[in-house]
Structures are given as C-alpha cells and as structure tokens.
Amino acid sequence: MDDLQPKIRNFKSGDRERIRNIATSTASGCYLSDRRLVADLLTDYYVKYEPEHLLVAEAGNEVAGYLLGCFDTSRCRRIKAGRVIPRAVTRSLLRGVIGVKEIKYLWLFTWLTVRGELNDSPPPGYPAHFHINLREGARGMRIGSALAGRFLAMLCDAGVKGVHVRVRRNDRRASNFFRNLGFSRKRGYATLLAGESGIRVSRTVIYTKKLSA
Q: By residue range, what is the domain housing residue 46?
C-alpha cells in the first residue's frame, strides 16, 4: 500500500497529543491564550469517555486528521457540562492563564444559554454526531470522506437511526461536503465567536442524515 494513501484506524492513547495539536492549530472563533484549555474543551470528552468512536487518519505515517464521534449527544452534553468543562476551566484558572476576555466570553455564553438564545439541542431522531478535523496540508486527499464513511458504517452496524453535524454559516466547503454525503439542512442557531475584534454572535447550521441498519 502506498504510504501516501490515507489509512483510517481506531484511536490509540499515543495519538492524544497529536490530536490536541491539530485541534488547537486549526481552531477559530475562540480565544487561544490558553491552548491547553481549548484542546481540553474540544477533545477531552471524546478521548476520555468515547474513545471507541474516535477515528484517526494516517498519511505518510503521520496523523493527518481525526474524527470525533459520539453515538449519544444527550449523554455527551451531560458529561461535558458536569465534568469536562468545569475541570478544564478550573485547570486553566490554576495555571493563571484565563484573562478578562475569556471570563467575559464564558459569562456571556452562560447568560445567553440560560436565556435560551444558544439552542444547540440535537434534533429528535438524530442522536449521534461527529466532527472531522484535518491538519494543514491534508486536504484534497479524500481523508474527510474516508473518516465519515467509516463512522457512518459504525453507526449503521450499531443500529443508530440518525446523525447530525454542525457547520458554521457561510462555510460552503463544509456544507457541500455534508450534502454530498446525503445530509440535509435542518435548522440554525445562534453561536458566539471570539477574536481580536471582540465577541460577536453568529449562526451555526445543523445538518442531519437518516440511517438504515
């Protein structure tokens, strides 16, 4: 087999740091003053609580990307709210890295969530979700399609009836990617994006796909 062709495999504990590095190097819409916090928030649930559904893509004997998969989004949300997020924020506070900008973002996020303005609840009938991320220079090798195909097959084998993904508004590349996989646009919801110019409210779109066993 050509070493340059992507190889899809299950996650190994030794992949953790490489996945975290890809997550932070490609992250946008959030403050990056504490990259460990960003990596914790983006990856810790999947690495610690659902590693059997985490897929890794290798190309040229290097990790080129990954898929964070979840069979039960409601469970994921409970664990993130009760364990992952509090622990990640506490560790960041102890490191003394979180500043005024981050505190303002967290406060605004909490306030808008309580008011019901950031309603990102999964659509009924689509309990699973996944997120694909590729390192710089790994696009154009059909790695995303290979990762998605493997995970969708896992869902079908397990009898999961539906899956959803989230795409930022105006991200045409991602929208077209999921449409080509048979996903349909379901609805949008408000989300917060943070950057050098401050915090702003944007939109994220949910796409769904029915599955058959």
A: 7-210
Mean pLDDT of 178-196: 89
What is the spatial distance between Cα 16 and Cα 12, in angstroms, rounded to a whole number?
8
- Quick one: CA dihedral 113, 115, 118, 123, positive or negative? positive
pTM of the model: 0.90
The CATH number of residue 139's host domain is 3.40.630.30
Contact 158, 85 (CB under 8 A): no
Mean pLDDT of 76-93: 91
Is residue 49 in some structural domain?
A: yes
In a domain, 1, yes or no: no
Taken in order 195, 176, 138, 69, the sign of the CA dihedral is positive
Confidence of residue 3 (pLDDT cuts 50, 70, 90): low
* Nearest alpha-carbon partner for 8 in 179, 159, 144: 144
